[in-house]
Amino acid sequence: MMKMKIDYTSYKDVDLKGKKIIMRVDINSNIDMEKYEIRESPRITALVPALNELKDSAIILIAHQSRPGSKDFTDLDIHAKEIEKQLGRPVKFVKDLFGEEAVKAIKNLNPGEILLLNNVRKWEPEMKGYDDFSKAENTEMVKILAPLVDYVIVDAFGAAHRSHVSIIGWPKMLAGPITEKELFSLKKIVEAPEKPMVMLIGGAKAIDKFKAMKFNFDNGKLDYALCSGLTAILIFEALGKKMGEPNHKIIAKDLEANKDMILETYKKYKDKIILPEDLIINDNGSRKTISIDEAATYNTTTGDIGPKSVEKFKEIVMKCKTIIANGPPGIFEQEVFRKATNEMVEAMVKATEENNALTIIGGGEMGAAATMSGLADRVSFISTAGGAMLEILSGNDLPMIRALREKKP
Ligand code: 3PG
User: Fold this and answer.
1) Are residues 79 and 198 in the same domain?
2) Whether residue 270 has pLDDT greater than 70
3) How many domains does the chain have?
4) Is 148 inside a domain boundary?
5) Which residue among 28, 205, 209 is best mutated to probe the pocket of ligand 1, counting the most ligand atoms within 8 A of its Cβ?
6) 380: which of 106, 143, 334, 349 lies 20 to 30 Å off by Cα?
7) Which residues pair with 20 in a beta bridge?
8) Where in the sequence is the domain holding 26, given as residue range(s)?
9) 158 alpha carbon – ligand 1 mean position (Å)
């Protein structure tokens, strides 16, 4: 049996009352940049109970939003407002990370107060990536901030697959409440999932998702994969179907680099890999159902799966005892492409309630869909992780988990 390497000092193992704590969290959110507003954020929702557990400490939050060069690479002022709104307590914000303003605010912070520092990725060395975690301790940010606090909790589970300074670079690190909850529910799937198990695979990061799927077919844990989004496009194109230039260009590089592996895997598991039978395009604001063969004719992005596919997917979900969703079947940000995502969340609720299935939703969008339709409490668990969850499901040791193991206080 595969075992997850879990070995850390928990925030529960030390007395944090009255202490000053840096807490690295992942509140990377889907932002409506026109309104400069956070859309539904399951990560902020998950942070609220964690902050409540630590309410007798002075908490300095460090987090990131997006990546340099992306449209939604912003300051974290809106995140502070959103946390404040959901938590019902003030959250201070400084547009600084370890400069004079940040240091002063940290020194003045009292137990019971929360301070959010600015987007850590605005500091260029953050994303450099260190294999030797002890080297990251010699960076300016760690050297200035670490001595100002009693403990560092690293709880950015959604970014646990990144060996970034703020995630692996502190001299001593404690695991936080979000990480504990996440590992508890993922452990079951990794070590001994109840079968049949199905993965619902959608959204972007097609090749990573394909590889996670392959790993779980190869190790015998997975019984079905319901492929949609770019993963489906990738498979269709590998099989020689033309999916239209707008679709093709997003997966072209991955296709070229992995075509043989994709075909070989598909051939081996073709009865278990379920592909869509129909797709949806945006026809002047309305949903138009097209067949797979028509995708090339319309030559536009196919943003969702159609009704026949949803029916087929639902039927399989209802046969399974373990259901993991990673990525939505449609482009959830756009209303016109939301329907299948909502229907698959409903199917997961039904499987949880009627079949006592273990249902886990990963990746921000499906979690947001569940929250928006008021169904978040009716699946087994909404994970704050997308990419990190995939890495775990692919059997990899995550940098954050490794750092927690190597840097126990
Ligand atoms: C995520 O959204 O997957 C995490 O916050 C990590 O972000 P990244 O993929 O930009 O490193």
Assistant:
1) no
2) yes
3) 2
4) yes
5) 28
6) 334
7) 58
8) 11-180
9) 7
- Residue 368, pLDDT > 90, answer no
What confidence tens digit (pLDDT) does each residue in 312-364 have? 999 999 999 999 999 999 998 899 999 999 999 999 999 999 999 999 999 77
Who has greater pLDDT, 96 or 367? Answer: 96
Assess whether 241 and 389 both reside in one domain.
yes
> 6 pLDDT exceeds 90?
no
Residue 150 inside a domain? The answer is yes
Q: Is 320 among the domain residues?
A: yes
Q: How many residues does the chain have?
A: 409
Residue 99 is assigned to a structural domain of this protein: yes
What is this structure's pTM?
0.89
Ligand 1 centre distance from Cα of residue 59 (Å)? 22
Closest-CA residue, ligand 1 atom 4, reads: 159
